[in-house]
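Exercise 7. Given the encoded structure of a 137-residue chain, write a plausible sequence.
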């Protein structure tokens, strides 16, 4: 084996280097793990929590003004920021397909505690208001 092969990183680490983000650092250390770091074993993954800013998401949603938003039922059933609802209904439209309508039908029929503004828009659409920002497909 020549000196070039001895200094070359293992194939797994070379592949990690090609795929990781440029600001990610891989440390190979022996001994105790430094404070603030987490040990990650080979073939292991880590869930990371990223900060969520509804205003940033809403701003990104306003980028394209002629789009349709096809939403999952969790957008209606789970708490969603009013700024996100506003971004979807100002100039754009929320598209509802029959399957999602079925999934949120109890939410539509009730007076929900979550997302009351969106509930009012959807109820208006089902009552014939075509300017509510909701499109039925």
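Solution.
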């Amino acid at each position: 084996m020549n000196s070039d092969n001895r200094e070359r990183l293992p194939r797994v680490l070379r592949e990690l280097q090609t795929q990781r983000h440029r600001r990610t650092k891989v440390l190979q250390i022996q001994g105790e793990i430094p404070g603030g770091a987490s040990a990650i074993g080979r073939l292991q993954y880590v869930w990371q929590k990223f900060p969520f800013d509804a205003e940033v998401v809403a701003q990104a949603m306003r980028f394209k003004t002629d789009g349709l938003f096809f939403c999952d039922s969790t957008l209606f059933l789970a708490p969603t920021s009013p700024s996100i609802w506003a971004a979807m209904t100002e100039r754009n439209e929320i598209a509802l397909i029959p399957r999602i309508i079925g999934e949120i039908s109890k939410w539509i029929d009730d007076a929900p505690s979550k997302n009351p503004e969106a509930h009012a828009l959807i109820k208006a659409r089902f009552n014939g208001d075509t300017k509510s920002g909701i499109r039925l497909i």
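Remark. Helices lie at 3-7, 11-19, 54-61, 74-77, 82-89, 98-103, 105-109, 116-126. Students should compare their own answers with the one above.
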